[in-house]
Amino acid sequence: SPRPTGRWTRQVAATRPDRPRVLITGGLGQLGSGLAEILRQQYGKENVILSDIKKPSAHVLSSGPFVYADVLDYKQLRELIVNNGVTWLVHYSALLSAVGEANVALARKINITGLHNVLDLALENCLRIFVPSTIGAFGPSSPRDPAPDLCIQRPQTIYGVSKVHGELMGEYLHHKYGLDFRCLRYPGVISAHTHPGGGTTDYAIQIFHDALSTGRHECYLRPDTRLPMMHIADCHRATVEFMHAPQSWLSLRTYNIDAMSFTPEEVADEIRKHVPQLRVTYKSDPVRQMIADSWPVRFDDSNARRDWGWTPVYGLEGLVSDMLHSIREKRT
Ligand code: AKB
């Protein structure tokens, strides 16, 4: 097994408290508040700190600790980790694929410099650190159907380049110093109440809102563009289960996780079973189409299934009925 058993790893295993103290960066994006809710149920409200540079809603403020934290400010992050006795860091702060292409310098700063800061702090403070990667970490020369964990990556977006860099830096620090780095490659994540903001897979959320508001959706991808997708509940559960997995189970530090793959046409057909009046038109956006065409159409997640028991719950049917139900419930 490639697992390190160095002094650092043994020391952390001996001193880690039963209840982790978790810091989530980029906590006001699509995934942070939902993950915080689950972890707070398990470890207590006070043990999970959400952070972001944005102003939180009253609901976020009343749900548990929230602090301002900029991942580009190393000293401030260090103070936060030290003063709060943080033991786990979930690093959600990042610019997504489409918005990253529109602002490469900012994406490089947040996705690469910000990542270096949290990796250094994790090493310095013996943290378990989770950094999400993505289907976007693959490129046109990768095997696409399915994409395995280990293969040629060479993505062609700054988002993808920064994610491959994150995977490799984290794995390097794990092998060299025993850093407890954990990384899952997420598919497009589909959520009813939180918004991704600037990804290539965002249409697959907007189409539900449009179906229930105007009954019309203009899709920026071709109708046959197939991409891996996942319900947010599965994504959160995968993250929590992976964070809990004993180190001895992990033969890799970066795993693909899969749930389903669909095209705009297929998801629209499934929505029409509930909302027959939905009309979809297609106006391809060249940037997002080019990005989607370079990504895998399916993920091979057999290593995650074997090593730590990953199994998704939601397929396309379950995803569609749950999304429509959740959005309808919020609107009434
Ligand atoms: C994006 O579309 O950029 C993200 C992702 C697949 O990583 N949702």
How does this model look, in words?
Pathway: Amino-acid degradation; L-threonine degradation via oxydo-reductase pathway; glycine from L-threonine: step 1/2. It catalyses: L-threonine + NAD(+) = (2S)-2-amino-3-oxobutanoate + NADH + H(+). Residues 22-257 form the NAD-dependent epimerase/dehydratase domain. There is one protein chain. With 332 residues, this protein is α/β, with parallel strands linked by helices. Helices cover 45% and strands 15% of the residues. It contains 13 helices and 13 strands. The strands form three sheets. Strands 1, 2, 3, 4, 5, 6, 7 and 11 form an eight-stranded parallel β-sheet that branches. Helix 6 (104-124) runs parallel beside helix 7 and helix 8 (203-213) runs parallel beside helix 10 (264-272). The protein is globular, with a radius of gyration of 19 Å. Residues 1-16 have low confidence and may be disordered. The site of 2-amino-3-ketobutyric acid (AKB) has 11 residues, from loops.
